[in-house]
Fold this sequence. Notes:
Elements: E1 3-6, E2 9-13, E3 30-31, E4 79-83, E5 86-90, H1 107-110, E6 133-141, E7 144-151, E8 160-167, E9 176-178, E10 186-190, E11 192-197, E12 200-205, E13 211-214, E14 216-219, E15 224-230, E16 239-248, E17 271-272, H2 290-298, E18 306-309, H3 310-314, E19 326-333, E20 360-367, E21 377-383, H4 392-396, H5 398-406, E22 411-415, H6 427-442, E23 445-455, H7 457-468, E24 475-479, E25 497-502, H8 510-523, E26 527-532, H9 537-543, H10 547-553, E27 564-569, E28 574-575, H11 579-583, E29 588-589, E30 601-602, E31 605-610, E32 617-623, E33 630-640, E34 648-658, E35 666-672, E36 674-679, E37 691-698, E38 702-706, E39 709-713, E40 716-723
Parallel strand pairs: 21-22, 21-23, 23-24, 24-25, 25-26, 35-37, 36-38
Antiparallel strand pairs: 1-2, 2-40, 3-31, 4-5, 5-6, 6-7, 7-15, 8-11, 8-16, 9-10, 11-12, 12-13, 14-15, 16-17, 16-18, 19-20, 20-22, 26-34, 27-32, 28-29, 30-31, 31-36, 32-35, 33-34, 37-40, 38-39
Amino acid sequence: MRRLLVAGVALALLPATGAVAATATATATATATSQVLPTTARLTGLPGDGPPALYRPETTLPAAHGWPGPESFPRTSGTGRLADGGFFWTDYLYDDHGATTASTGGPSVTAGTPSFGTYTYPSGPASGNGADIFRAAVLLKGDATYWRVDWTTLADPTVPVAEWTFDRDDNAKTGTSTWPAKAGVTSAGIDTALAVSSRGAQLIDVASGTATRLPVTVDRAAQSFVVRIPASTLTPNGAWRIRLAAGVADKTGTTFAQPPDATPLQPAVYNVTFRTRAQETPKYNFWDDMAQTQALDQGDVSAFSALIRWSHLAARTTTPEARPTGWSDRWYVSSVDLGPGVRTDPSTIEDGQPNYLGRVQPYGIYVPTTYDAKHPAPLTFLLHSLTQNHNQYAATTPNFVQEACEQRHSICVTTLGRGPDGFYHDYAELDFWQVWHAVASAYALDPERTVLSGYSMGGIGSNQLAMQHPDLYAKSVTLAGGVGNLPALVNLRWVPTYLAGGAEDELVWATTEKAEADALDALGYRYRWMLYPVLDHVVYELADSFADAARYMGDASRVKDPGHVTFRWTPRSEQTSSSNQLSQGGIAWTQRPDLGIGTTGAYWLRDLQARSTASDAQVDAISGARPDAVVTPVRSRTVDPTNAPEPAIVTQLTWRTSARPPATPRLTLHLTNVAALTVLLADAGFKPGTKSVLDVMTDGPTRLRLGTRTVQLAAGHHTLWFTA
């Protein structure tokens, strides 16, 4: 009997078992994503074996030049706080839509996600987003005050103009109401205004019209404008009611230019800040701009203000960040900046490429009223549909939100995915992982109870992400969606899958859902398929009757370290070019080590490498040391006449389990197009010192790692013993 040593594990060839282990190193032409960060580097609340993008620290925004205070901005849009002598506010992202016109341009309209304002930008350096306020801040420092505006996009600093107004006695009956600099809006009680562009600032006494010129610090890296006002020029005392709005600067940089699709009598303002979450309510408010547009249509922005008490700034009072329950929008800093602004041409809406390009990206989050940081909450992803955005479910499905989020005591999250059509592939997938990291940084999450769900494109994304990383999720819920990549469904052995849709669905055909249900049934995997005989794609979503799906989510936990693992992957980044093909479940598999996304492994399999990119690779692994319970499939097909929104045909497969068989010291691997893999022996149930049998069938050279050492296997059948 020939003895081999592998990773401190004793291996020996048993007689008459096939080829001797190859001595040459197998060539891996398709290497999977590099190993994830060590456990000590992960946030509490994140599962193991995600791609590196899930664990990488968030990129830090550059500090603004000319700003002598901290960077203490809140992460929740529509909220402010005090910190270290300053007042810090975060505005909504991509809400710069102005007033209502006859225009229907811009991605917020043509993408199917409506905005209330319909202003567009002049073509060129405005980049479709040039007057969008990201953050604003006021600081009292020494003998001066500082006034700061951060922009979502600053491709060309000459594009935006911002105007502050100060009601310096907080008395609406004094002062005037018309904003200077041709902003075209009013608010009661203005005593002083500060108009700011990259060409300089003007401090305007509105009663006399006298203007004092002040320098502006423009920081293109921080995308900020900062103005310092000496106390001798403007004395900070008492309580001031401040307001702030932005638009496109005229050629002189001193006044607002009229938007190209606005009438001369309409405001020149694209964005008004200091709008609270209570003012921008979520229903039908996809871009958090409903109250803003209504005010701009009337020309009066008095409702949007912040109160600055200079005594609080002088005392360096600090207040905590808002942690609201219910729906809100938060932001994070992406590891990639894809360029300035927004792609606005309607032809880009279904090309699969990113539309929202900048380094700062928003996401929608629902925090249940029962959330307690001492008790980690489950996380539920509600992935948005084609043409929709991160506020889809907040805007249109309040019943589903109550059932899936509030009643299940789950934090729910919707990513923007860089646009309306990313199919959670490539940069849209990167956004998914980075949002997950951001949520885990802010809230206590239970990594054992993560559920994927989504409607239409979001349901396809739910399926795809579950197949790519099945060990991260408790369940997958697909509403009006399905996948055409049926071979990869073998990965969902331990992820129960929900499917639902209308027989009259014109966008995601019922045949696609049936094919997935049939494939899951043939595999003997758990699923539930709800078929509604007369619903189409749009009516099903707007009916907001997803109680059955929420019940299916339940309080499930993911399966950790099962005895039988099957994992199939596509060792190349691939996506069909047709959105119609994708809507029918076309391929959307990302291998982008440069972005930190791609195949990592599954359960106790790691470091997977394919031998060739020409075909899929697959591992079927059974650990006798960790036997699974014996499963008997239970199939049923019924009609539920009481189901909403209409009676449904219910087809499902559940499991009836019986006792686990006795453990056996045997590891079996069937490998197809696998150049290399690692088996985590402890996670597979093998205790140190246990003598066990390794049975491997491979269709080509394979490098197998057990522990810290490696054995090379040629094509064929190998039976070896090892001591863990």
